[in-house]
Write a structure and sequence with these properties.
The chain is of the alpha/beta class and about 150 residues long. The chain is built from 4 helices and 6 strands. It binds flavin mononucleotide.
Length: about 150
């Protein structure tokens, strides 16, 4: 199975999660920053996992730009999943989070959504990741792979 994990990251926390997810998945896996991927390549994978930091309740510009460039329902036939990193503070909930929005866009572009749109917690804007989140991300990724079979 060919998997692509695409991420954006300002302070490195989402990058760590993305790489952890990549390590947890067997088969042919690439982990690339959003700016390193051409939108036309996304549909060439069996599984596409997209994740980024939550900024004001939304995905970052790099993730939005990449997904906006995917034409029509080009992701038809591709399994897709989304994750984000986010703060644990209750007050940020009113803004929403990046992962459900990424998942919504991937689905709109024709992708077959698998797994839950998942958030992984950072202790503060610059991190670090909360203890245990890398392990939780690895488990999440393994569950997703199981669902594709
Ligand atoms: C401009 C900005 C806006 C943010 N807005 C939110 C938010 O709405 N909700 C939230 O949970 N975290 C928010 N955060 C915190 C980010 O989730 C956190 O910086 C990110 O998870 C760290 O990931 P990174 O190291 O990959 O950049 C924001 C951070 C920045 C810099």
């Amino acid at each position: 199975m060919k998997t692509l994990v695409v991420y954006d990251s300002v302070h490195g926390n989402t990058e760590r999660v993305a790489k952890g997810i990549g390590d947890a998945i067997t088969g042919e896996v690439q982990v690339l920053r959003a700016g390193e991927v051409n939108s036309s390549e996304l549909k060439t994978f069996d599984l596409l996992i997209v994740g980024g930091p939550t900024h004001r309740g939304r995905p970052t510009q790099a993730i939005r730009d990449l997904l906006d460039q995917v034409p029509g329902i080009a992701l038809q036939g591709t399994n897709v999943a989304a994750f984000d990193t986010r703060l644990p503070a209750k007050w940020v909930r009113i803004f929403g989070y990046a992962a459900p929005r990424i998942a919504g866009t991937l689905k709109k572009k024709g992708g077959t959504l698998i797994g839950s749109a998942e958030g992984f917690f950072v202790e503060g804007t610059e991190g670090p990741l909360r203890e245990g989140e890398l392990e939780r991300a690895a488990l999440w990724a393994k569950e997703i792979v199981k669902s594709t079979k």
